[in-house]
Each structure stands twice: as structure tokens, then as C-alpha cells.
């Protein structure tokens, strides 16, 4: 016998949606790291490591970055063998810090720099149709890390290394959290992230004449193509958060449910 009443559909809560997204991104990174390991076991090296290249989501391949990035990446790679290459890490954290810590920090800095405006330090990307430099999420950066180095890094470990860079004074971020309905419901957008002046001063090579000229040439070419390296305005990001929230189905509060009537029949 067919029921006259429809079954009630449970709308996921904000916490459930956040957990779903977390697990989806985690599994994406795990799957990618396993695929990389399988390629390496066949004698193929799919990871560029410290090479001056960047992944293109459009062509699904690596492309070369401007020549000055090769010098910048080489300077960061020196951190792996030289604990005093970035003196603020030694002064503010530990002296000397272990090789595996230096390696992870160098790898994370390389990932940051692939999304970075050199010297200014803004970590983001240019999005077609958007006027300004759009902040990139930590999820995207962690996926880039897995793709570049072929390794999976747990989210907690990632943020632990980010905190080390913060303590050293090399990295700052400004979170974007919005009260979307005036009732305390908070949603967030990718934070403004930046490598500080202290980092670029300690790297030193960005002040070499040939590197400075390469940076200037690359920025001029990008601006001619319509790209902007100023941050997307805060108001635009807030509007984006509110818009997404309005499209997300909401679980009604208990006080809003009407239990006096049976469910509507088919």
C-alpha cells in the first residue's frame, strides 16, 4: 500500500556541510598522492618539486614561470641545507631547526610563491572577469603542494608549519568572516594572505638588478593583458559570501516547524 504522506527530508546543517567539504578535499589530496606514488613506482617522475613551473587547470599540464622565479625558487631551496638561510626562523623558533622541518617549510614557501606577487607578497590568483587579485584558499594550496611534491600533508600539519612562518614574521593573513543574516550565522571566505617584507629581505635575491628587472617586466606584461595585482575589495568578497549563503538550503529552526499538520500527500 502506497503511503499518502511524503517522507520528511533532512537538510544538512552547516557543521555537516563543512565536514563533508573537509572530507571531500582530504580524499582528493589522498587520491592524488596515491596516483603520484603509482607513477613513481613505474619509474616516472610526475612531480616538478623545486622547478619554476606552475600547474594549469585549463590544460592540465605544467607550464614555465618567468625566468626570475627560477632564481627565487633556488634561493628558497637553500633553506633545506642551510638552517641560517632564513635568520628569523632561527631567531624566533629554534636554533638550529631540524632538516625535516626546513624541508617542509621550503616546500610550503615554494607553493606560496607560485601564487605570489614577488616583493609585494600577496598570495592569490587572477580570475577572469574579476578586477583584482583574488585570495586563494588553504585547500587549494594544500592540493598544489600534493601535486608539486607528490606527498599528502594532513591539514593539522599544514597549519602547524603556517604558524611557524607567522611566528618568524614571514607570513601574515587577514581572515574574512561575515555575519550573513544578522543573527550570528558566520560564513568565511579565503583570507588575505601575504609573505612579508621581512621574508623578501632575508631571501635577498629579489633585490638583485636582473631579478628586479624580470619582476617588473612580468608585471608590465600582465597588466597589459588586463590583470591587476591589487587585492579584490573586501566589500566584493563579503557580497560573494552573502550570495552563496542565500543559495544554501537552511534547516528550519524548531520554532519555525509546524507540527500541528500532517505532511502534504502526494
SSE diagram, text form:
Blueprint: H1 14-41, E1 53-56, E2 61-64, H2 67-81, H3 87-92, H4 99-114, E3 122-126, E4 133-135, H5 138-149, H6 155-168, E5 171-179, E6 186-195, H7 197-203, H8 209-224, H9 234-247
Antiparallel strand pairs: 1-2, 3-4, 3-6, 5-6
Helix pairs in contact: 1-5, 2-4, 2-8, 4-5, 4-6
Task: Jot down its keywords.
266 residues; 6 strands; single chain; 13% strand
Describe the structure.
With 266 residues, this protein is α+β, with helices and mostly antiparallel strands. The chain has one domain (14-249). The chain has helices at residues 14-41, 67-81, 87-92, 99-114, 138-149, 155-168, 197-203, 209-224, 234-247, and strands at residues 53-56, 61-64, 122-126, 133-135, 171-179, 186-195. The strands form two sheets. Strands 4-3-6-5 form a four-stranded antiparallel β-sheet, sandwiched between helices. Strands 1-2 form a two-stranded antiparallel sheet. The chain is globular, with a radius of gyration of 23 Å.
Amino acid at each position: 500500500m502506497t503511503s499518502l504522506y511524503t517522507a520528511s527530508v533532512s537538510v544538512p546543517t552547516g557543521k555537516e556541510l563543512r565536514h563533508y567539504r573537509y572530507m571531500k578535499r582530504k580524499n582528493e589530496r589522498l587520491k592524488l598522492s596515491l596516483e603520484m606514488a603509482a607513477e613513481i613506482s613505474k619509474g616516472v617522475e610526475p612531480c616538478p618539486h623545486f622547478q619554476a613551473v606552475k600547474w594549469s587547470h585549463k590544460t592540465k599540464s605544467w607550464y614555465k614561470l618567468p625566468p626570475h622565479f627560477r632564481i627565487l625558487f633556488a634561493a628558497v631551496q637553500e633553506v633545506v641545507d642551510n638552517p641560517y638561510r632564513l635568520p628569523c626562523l632561527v631567531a624566533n623558533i629554534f636554533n638550529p631547526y631540524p632538516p625535516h622541518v626546513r624541508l617542509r617549510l621550503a616546500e610550503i614557501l615554494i607553493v606560496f610563491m607560485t601564487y605570489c606577487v614577488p616583493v609585494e607578497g600577496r598570495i592569490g590568483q587572477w580570475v577572469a572577469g574579476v578586477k583584482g587579485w583574488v585570495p586563494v584558499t588553504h585547500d587549494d594550496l594544500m592540493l598544489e603542494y600534493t601535486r608539486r611534491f607528490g606527498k599528502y600533508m594532513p591539514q593539522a600539519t599544514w597549519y602547524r608549519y603556517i604558524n611557524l612562518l607567522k611566528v618568524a614574521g614571514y607570513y601574515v593573513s587577514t581572515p574574512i568572516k561575515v555575519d550573513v543574516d544578522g543573527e550570528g550565522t558566520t560564513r568565511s571566505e579565503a583570507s588575505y594572505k601575504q609573505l612579508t617584507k621581512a621574508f623578501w629581505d632575508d631571501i635577498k635575491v629579489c633585490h638583485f638588478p636582473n631579478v628586479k628587472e624580470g619582476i617588473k617586466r612580468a608585471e608590465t606584461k600582465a597588466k597589459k593583458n588586463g590583470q591587476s595585482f591589487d587585492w579584490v575589495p573586501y566589500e566584493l568578497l563579503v557580497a560573494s559570501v552573502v550570495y552563496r549563503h542565500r543559495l544554501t538550503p537552511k534547516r528550519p529552526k524548531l520554532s519555525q516547524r509546524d507540527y500541528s499538520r500532517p505532511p502534504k500527500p502526494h
